[in-house]
Protein: Class I SAM-dependent methyltransferase
Organism: Flavobacterium rivulicola
Amino acid sequence: MDQSILTEAIQEFIRNNIEADVNHLALQKHPFSNTDYTAILNQIAAKQRAKTKLPTWFKTSNIIYPSKISVEQTSSEKTAAYKSQLVSGDFLMDLSGGFGVDDFYFAQRITQVIHCEINDELSAMVQHNFAQLNITNIQCFSGDSYDILEAQKPKLDWIYIDPSRRSEAKGKVFMLKDCLPNVPENLDFYFQFASNIMIKTAPLLDLTAGLSELKNVKAIHIVALENEVKELLWVLEKGYNDKTQIITVNLLKTKTEEFSFELYSNHQANFSLPQKYLYEPNAAIMKSGGFEMVSAQFGLAKLQQHSHLYTSETLIDFPGRRFKIEQLIGYNKNEMKTFLENQKANITTRNFPDSVESIRKKWKIKDGGNLYCFFTTDINNHKIVLLCSKLP
């Protein structure tokens, strides 16, 4: 960790260029002969990324950042705050601490947090940053978390793990056994120290695949931020053998959309032709696969088994986008020419053979405007287009 970047002159340079183009700055003369200019530019680039993702860090003086890529890969403050609500007790150990954003929020709910990080430089950086953030109940350990657990033998309420994919596993199907640490292999070892384990994975991990590798899975939280799924949280409890709860969360600027159900619940969806209103589930629900449960819980009819769009005669609150169906047309030359050719519209396809790009090109439809068009398949397997206006 290069402490020279903390000198007042360099920190002022970073502050003064926080809105600058880093590539343009790189072409300028190096203003500080005693410090690696690339390291300074990396601080600017990483801090720029932190402005919206990590506002607490951005607003705090003398923070040292890892690479811009590391900042991009770390949890956002909003998702970290959410996962902190899932834990309680006196002791939590994070086995793959990283930049420490999750631990910062865990420390607001847990008496003592232990941050383990195998990278010595990153561990020192995080310890420095916690001091700047006035966090006193996080203890930082540098080294392999397995060895630290074995040496310390702590009594923990929670273990938290954010395993990283091994470089040689790139391109393969994402499995937990391909990550470091290897959670499935070490699970019994971890349960010696804590009865509760939370594992964070990327959305790429298939739910069925994750469940096949893990045991005692009490809940899976699918967390989206502004309708983009950011992470899966696997909550394990020692000895738990009951049904797994699926909890979907979409964190929006002004509200949080939540939807939950028991995995493998036997509920049947209702189906109908398009009615007055159309509903599109948010990204977290789409990841969950709970499409029959959406119909059952909200009393909505699906347009078709594989379309994953819903309809009703009466408008309801819904965790996703809502539309009023202004017109239904068939996907044929005459109706497309009459209603959509050379028009401006927002296009979505669900269970439809043509891509958005090919539809735009074929019918010369420009992007944007207030018209929302859903190209989909109805209960009679007819290709249809729903011309809609968006509702709040």
About this structure: The chain is about 30% helix and 30% strand. The chain has three domains: 3-71, 74-262, 270-391. The CA atoms of residues 19 and 48 lie 7 Å apart. The first helix runs from residue 8 to 16.
